[in-house]
Amino acid sequence: MEYQTFKEELCRILQKRTEGKKKVILQQVEKNNGVVLDAVVLQGEKEQVLPTIYLEELYEIYEEGATLEQIAGRILCEEEKWKEEVEFSLEEFEDYTRARTSIFYKLVNYQMNERMLKRVPHIRYLDLAVVFYYRVEQGHFPGGSVLIHNNNLVTWGITKSQLMKDAAFNTSRKLPYSFVGMESLIAELSGEELMDFSTEELMYVLTNEEKYYGAAVLLYPHVLSHIGTLLKRNFFVLPSSVHECILVPDLGHYTRFELMKMVREVNQNQVEEEEILSYQVYYYDRKREALVM
């Protein structure tokens, strides 16, 4: 069965199994970097907040042998689990005096998201953009997020400056940064004993403790200057994904060209398209206390 037919037949089965109590909606969702994914939403009469279920992965499961009935059952189970586990209050979101403690920021590529950036408040940073999201921190599904749009600022009656102030306060405090040597990280992932921090490693990983949208750590106050003091030298910053960066002390082992080639190869072969942050290599100058391209 071709993908288009799969989508249509799946929606027909879902409509039948919900006995007309829910509207089955096929929609396209624009993700980071202009990636557009097909999704299905089951909307009840009084439901305002709904889970979005993406179809590409389900089609792969179908091609591996699962039946449409099995996939429809899986969607219905996921929807029920989502409703039980997610505690999202629309009233709390719409009241900024209550929502402000759950506003965070992340970094995305500016050029790859120009269309999306027309609809959301943002701040330019190098070849990137700082954008903002509301983070679901309650219930059994912490870390879920809602991208903040321009119309949200109008509803809240606040400025972008206020949004940035609150996001900067929340992000750096609730998502503390993590800075470890690459060898130490590999040892940890391999189940070996965690190595002591060393200033002699060739590469380090900078992210947050959740390793989710961790590249935003680049914006945290004094983090880069502290790392420069720790390493006692300038360093390159490789934006390996929206979730983390790789720091390379300027020891003369790598040229900028070699590092840019490394970033390009990692983006092409190891990073999902919607998680690519940049193809550039940045440089932190300790004297200037500045990150530059």
What does this entry look like structurally?
This protein has 293 residues and is of the alpha+beta class. 37% of the residues lie in helices and 25% in strands. It contains eleven helices and 13 strands. It has helices at 3-17, 56-63, 68-85, 90-94, 96-99, 114-117, 150-156, 160-174, 182-189, 223-231, 256-269, and strands at 23-30, 36-43, 53-54, 103-109, 122-125, 128-136, 144-147, 177-181, 204-208, 235-241, 244-249, 282-285, 290-292. The strands form three sheets. A six-stranded antiparallel β-sheet has the order 8-9-11-10-12-13, with helices on both faces. The N and C termini lie far apart (48 Å).
Summarize the structure.
The chain is of the alpha+beta class.
Descriptive labels:
11 helices, 37% helix, 293 residues
The total strand number stands at 13
Poorly predicted residue ranges: none
The proportion of residues in beta strands is: 15-25%
Overall outline: globular
Spell out the blueprint of helices and strands.
Blueprint: H1 3-17, E1 23-30, E2 36-43, E3 53-54, H2 56-63, H3 68-85, H4 90-94, H5 96-99, E4 103-109, H6 114-117, E5 122-125, E6 128-136, E7 144-147, H7 150-156, H8 160-174, E8 177-181, H9 182-189, E9 204-208, H10 223-231, E10 235-241, E11 244-249, H11 256-269, E12 282-285, E13 290-292
Antiparallel strand pairs: 1-2, 2-3, 4-6, 5-6, 6-7, 8-9, 9-11, 10-11, 10-12, 12-13
Helix pairs in contact: 1-3
